[in-house]
Amino acid sequence: VAESDLGRQVAAAVQTALAPVAGYLALITQANPRGSADALLRRPDVDAILIGALDEARSAAEEVVQAAWYSGSGLTSGGVMLERLLADIDRIFSRLAHLHGLVRHAHASVPPAQFEPGITRPGDNPSARAAEQRAAAVRDAILSWTREASLRARMTVSTAEGAARTAAALAEAEAARLSGEPVRKRWRAHAESTSCCFWCRRLDGVTIGSRESFAPYLGGPVARLSRRPGSAVIYARPPRLYHGDLQGPVLHPFCRCWLEITRSLAGAVPSDRGQEAGVQRSPAPQAHAGLLAASDVRAMPEDRYRAQLEFLRAATHELDQALKRLAEGR
Amino acid sequence: LTHAGEPLQVTRRWFADTSASYALAAIALLEYARDHRGEFVFGPLDAESMRNGGLEVSGPPGLLDEVAKMLSGVPGLAEPAAPGGREEPLARLALRDLDGARGRG
After folding, report:
1. Which tens digits make up the pLDDT trace of A260-272?
2. Closest residue in B to A309 (Cα–Cα)
3. Smallest CA–CA distance from B43 into chain A, residue
4. CA dihedral in degrees (B82, B85, B89, B92; nearest 10)?
5. Which of A5, A2, A27, A95 is nearest to A57 (CA)?
6. Which of A56, A198, A300, A325 is a plausible cystine mate for A305, CB 3.0–4.6 Å?
7. What's the CA gap between A163 and A213, in Å, rounded?
């Protein structure tokens, strides 16, 4: 997982805003062994501290998302994409009712206990012990939600960073296109990295028109056999596209792919990949009539690829049968 | 050439005994291309090539060694021993001789 400084920053900001709430609610819960969840949530101080913490986390996360958008890309405006990302942040931290539900559930998970003469050991205080456990459950519920919210915010920040780089590259492509240059865009992935996903590997090197979508090149769900003998078949489905389009990276949160703009129509076949910067790059093998480039095979939609393969297999089988029949004189 | 004086791209040729071998080699190359990252070009994939059994692959030398290893498992497919040489499979030579004999007869 590629985590940037901004990702770490937003995680810390969310934790800083929400962790004290967990402690505060746990303190009140423990101090009121006979209190109910309703009574806890009706307290004006509890609602005020919850709303305040959510606002603080939202505000900090919005700042980091904006920084992620503008800092690395050189963009001067946000556009629809930034609005969507900020709306995502707003949704994460507008879940007061959900937090209330979590607190209620945690509160109810530890039932009240009382001193029972003849059963309870003298000196023991079951009510206080239950309140202590209830307080721990409430604290854990809020901390667990905080971790979830923090992860969601990190995902949004990571998406903002990648999407901004793509938006900048597309703006460059559009300027070149308007000036009459034949521009194309190429998906590039860190395919040499073990963390690079199957779908990004598949898109690596796919070169299309600057206004086309990469979505058709993802292909459909695939059944892949693991290379280890005896291991299970993995049925994979491509990630759901952010707002249904794929003009360029990122394909998923923490995606490290990037968009390359090429200024030649002959760039349909990608150059060699996986070579370190500074090493002389070999020219891409050029596809002539009847020749097929490996990158084109990878860019083929899954259903078309499977159909071609099945057709060839069937043809091979038929040929084999025909030759056998001939050999047997039938 | 690279700094080490090695060629950046090379082309290697294979010959298939039958059209079925040619199709099997095409399947193997398609699957290899789909599952690996390396950039190479293969073909020609047309009726004429299927008839004469010729198949060539162009790409970086290291990658072509791997492709050759993979293609060595395809029955009826042979790579000429001499680089650049066009040695035809025995069956094809025999067929040509037969055709020649028919022509003479």
Report:
1. 998 754 433 333 3
2. B27
3. A291
4. -160
5. A95
6. A300
7. 14
Give the residue ranges of DSSP H helices in chain B.
19-35, 47-52, 61-71, 90-104
The answer on pLDDT for B5 being more than 70 is no
Q: Taking CA atoms, what residue in B is nearest to A324? A: B20
Beta-carbon count within 10 A of A131 CB: 21
Q: Which range among A165-179, A273-287, B27-41, B83-97 shows the weakest confidence by mean pLDDT?
A: A273-287
Q: Cβ B23–A274 below 8 Å, yes or no?
A: no
Q: What's phi and psi for B41, nearest 5 deg?
A: -125, 140
B78-98 burial string, b = 16+ CB within 10 Å, else e? beeeeeeeeebbeeeeeeeee
Q: Is B75 on the interface with A (CB under 8 A)?
A: no
Residue type for position A2: A
> A192: burial class by Cβ within 10 Å (0-12, 13-18, 19+)?
exposed
**Mean pLDDT of the B92-102 span:** 43
Tokens 């958008």 label which residue?
A69
> Is residue B87 classed as helix, strand or coil in its secondary structure?
coil
Distance (Å, rounded) from C-alpha A50 to C-alpha A45?
A: 9
**Interatomic CA distance for residues A250 and A169, integer angstroms:** 13
Distance (Å, whole) CA A45 – CA A39: 12
**Interface check B40 vs A, CB under 8 A:** yes
Residues 6 or more apart whose Cβ sits within 8 Å of residue A261: A169, A172, A173, A176, A183, A184, A185, A186, A210
- Look at residue B11 and give its three-state secondary structure: strand
- The reply to whether B102 touches chain A by the CB within 8 Å rule is no
Q: How far, in Å, CA of B9 to CA of B64, rounded?
A: 9
* ipTM of this complex: 0.75
